[in-house]
Amino acid sequence: MRLETRSLNSAGLLVLTVSLMAAGQLCMRRGMLAFGPIESAAAFGNLVWGGIISPGAIPFVWLGMSVYALAIMVWLQVLSRMDLSIAFPMMSLSYVLVYLGAALWPALDEAITVGRLAGTGLIMCGVALVAQSR
Q1: How far is the C-alpha of 18 from the C-alpha of 28, rounded, in Å?
Q2: Which band of pLDDT confidence, cut at 50, 70 and 90, is reported for residue 127?
Q3: How far apart are CA 111 and CA 38, in angstroms?
Q4: Cys-Cys crosslink for 38: which of 18, 43, 48, 124, Cβ 3.0 to 4.6 Å?
Q5: Is 78 in contact with 14 (CB distance < 8 Å)?
């Protein structure tokens, strides 16, 4: 029973890591939309130094980085409990979460397209579900 509880706890931590990684990416993207494109070293310097001096200027970037840092702390817990060969492939689920989040969060306003669905593997998941239901 102890092994089953540990496995469930490890799986929960893995799901939390994937979710936090996706949330961090979405927040950083939101922040960078407000900041604008980085097209020069000076623009990058403005992002870095301006963000340090006045973090309120890029709150979503800071929030995203903070969430990402928390995800790394949880990920270390996962790595202490699970084989890397099992845990790391599961991180690819963050691709799906980021895609769905970017498409569903109005502030990001990203399109849902067949190509992007295929790129995240959602089409293959749908095909597999339909095939399995027959």
Answers
A1: 16
A2: low
A3: 22
A4: 43
A5: yes
Task: Supply 117's token pair.
Answer: 């669905």
Report the SS3 class of residue 109.
coil
Beta-carbon contacts of 22 under 8 Å, excluding residues fewer than 6 positions away, are: 94, 97, 98, 101
Tabulate helix, strand, coil % of the chain (nearest 5). Answer: 85, 0, 15
- What pLDDT, on the 0 to 100 scale, is given for residue 122? 66
Asked if residue 61 lies in contact with residue 31, where contact means CB atoms within 8 angstroms, the answer is: yes
- pLDDT reading at 33 higher than 50: yes
Do 87 and 19 contact (CB within 8 A), yes or no?
no
**Residue 5: which of 81, 108, 112 has the closest Cα?**
81
Q: Tell me which DSSP letter residue 91 carries.
A: T
The count of other CB atoms within 10 Å of the CB of residue 102 is 20
Longest dimension (CA), the chain: 59
Per-residue confidence (pLDDT) for residue 3, from 0 to 100:
46
Residue type, 83: D
